[in-house]
Amino acid sequence: MKDYSLKINGHNYNVQIDDVNEASTVAHVVVNGVDYEVEIEGAKASTVSKPQVSPAPKSANSAMITPSTATPSPRIAPAPSTSGSSVKCPLPGTVLSVKVAVGDTVKKGDVIATLDTSDLEKQIESAEESYGDTLKSAQTSYDRATADLETSTVQHENSLIDLQAKIDQADQNLQDAKDALTKAQENERKAQSTYDTAVSDYNTLKSAYDSASASISTYTAALNAAADAQNQAISAVNSAIAAYNADPSDANKDAMNAANDNLKSAQEAYQSAQASLTDAQNSCSAPSLGLYGFNNISDALKNADSTKNQAESALDSAKNAVDTANTQISTCEQQVKAAHDSYDQEKNYSNLLNKSQNVEDSATKLEQAQRTPDNLETLRSTLEDCTLTATMDGTITALNATVGSVCSGTVATIQNTDALVVDVTIPANSVPKLSTGMTCHITSDATGDAVIDGTLTQIDPVANDTGSFGAKVVVNGDADGLLIGISAKVEIVISEKDNVFIVPRDAVGTADDGSSYVLRNADVPVLIVKEGTNE
After folding, report:
1. Per-residue confidence (pLDDT) for residue 501, from 0 to 100
2. What is the largest CA-CA distance in the chain?
3. Residue pair 341/214 in contact by the 8 Å Cβ criterion
4. Burial code of 383-412, b = ≥16 C-beta within 10 A, e = fewer?
5. Contact 444/76 with Cβ under 8 angstroms?
6. Is the separation of the CB atoms in 391 and 108 below 8 Å?
């Protein structure tokens, strides 16, 4: 006997098959502990019997269509609309006991199997220890947060006292800065007045100077012209001397003497112009200012300019002092604002708020820690689920659990076998003759000679890979003995006639004279038949 492990449509099957040979037509098969006699499709029978003529059953004296045996035999299955359920393992585990077998009828809540929970119980113990540690840690965090809040409250009150002192100091600094600004502004006004007077004095002297300069401008121009002429005469003398030295001829000597005479005349003209300018300068005066002589007026202007520059410098210093005082006031105002902001922040948004929030958060975490963790709840629930029970009323159609084995996923399949359907295959040339709603007759080895009524409910609109069409027949009659997954034979009633014989197509022949005959048996090999008669 050969052993196989099969998985079909998510279900596991343990199969043992007896050895067979070419002459075998039936094999002994054990599926999940259940014995079956299986006909071998395509096997050659040891003898071939001749077709026999047999009367049709009274309830269906009619022509029949049997699906081609070249395709898979019809199989019994639960109707698609029938409810089914799977019993699943909550987690992989070792099977401790199995209470049912395939084919058993169960009620919802019946025990299917139990799992070894020793490892799970250890996990629960570990989870409970972790839960206790978490709870203890949360309580400690809450106690620390509460103590920290009390300490921070005292620190908060002391900080407010210190910050108020800083506000008072900032207010005093601001007042001092304002006083300094007032003084600087007064100094600026005085410096401005001094500067304005110096500018006025300078402008008066400048006017007198410009007038004096205009009165001596002619003499100044004459002196400048005489100076230019004297310079030219000097240059001419130098040239004449150079020429004479190069060529001491009488002509060059005469030219040199003439140049010296010309220089002497130019020098006399320059001295005369200078004397005239001096006389003109001495005649200049500014009686309203008490100044006489051009040089005195010029010196007075220089002194006025110096006084103006000093006054301007003093004014700039005074303005800078005002700007500095204003900057200091701005700085002090910022310090006052910063001091108030720090006070307000400590009062309204201080670290005390964070500490209070920490207490609330710790209290929330403590409350959460006091709740049973989801994983512990899950483990406890899983422990309960390790007793696997039926989820519905029905029949065990698949069982994937043995004592000592490790199972996971689906352990058992429960189906309602009160409504069954047979999956059949119909040759393409027979499909046009069929329609849903036709009566069907179902037989199987499991039900012996019993014929069970059925109804053709579905014909696939598309052919399969072999060119045939799938169809479904719903079992209507008493289905006792029909087992899910076994092979069955289905005859579909196309039409019915009473008092007729049903013969195999191969038993009908045509004689040489054109008449039809039916092979009967060895004693009466041929029966002549006529169309339209009952003979």
Report:
1. 62
2. 193
3. no
4. bebbebbbbebbbbbbbbbeeeeebeebbb
5. yes
6. yes
DSSP conformation class of 106: E
pLDDT tens, position by position, 49-104: 333 333 333 333 333 333 333 345 576 666 554 557 889 887 788 899 999 998 88
Q: What values do phi and psi take at 471, rounded to 5?
A: -150, 165
Print the SS3 string covering 43-102.
CCCCCCCCCCCEECCHHHCCCEECCCCCCCCCEEEECCCCCEEEEECCCCEEEEEECCCC
Backbone angles phi, psi at 16, to 5 degrees: -120, 135
Selection from 201, 226, 467, 179 nearest residue 328 by Cα: 179
For the record, the structure tokens of 178 come out as 């304002």
* Torsion sign over Cα 452, 456, 460, 465: positive
Q: For 293-346, what is each residue's pLDDT tens digit?
A: 999 999 999 999 999 999 999 999 999 999 999 999 999 999 999 999 999 888
* Closest to 408 in 3D by CA, of 388, 381, 380: 388
Using a cut of 0.70, tell me whether the model's pTM lies above it: no
Question: What's the token pair of residue 477?
Answer: 């009659």
DSSP assignment, residue 243?
Answer: H
pLDDT value at residue 92: 81
> What whole-number distance in Å separates Cα of residue 250 and Cα of residue 253?
5
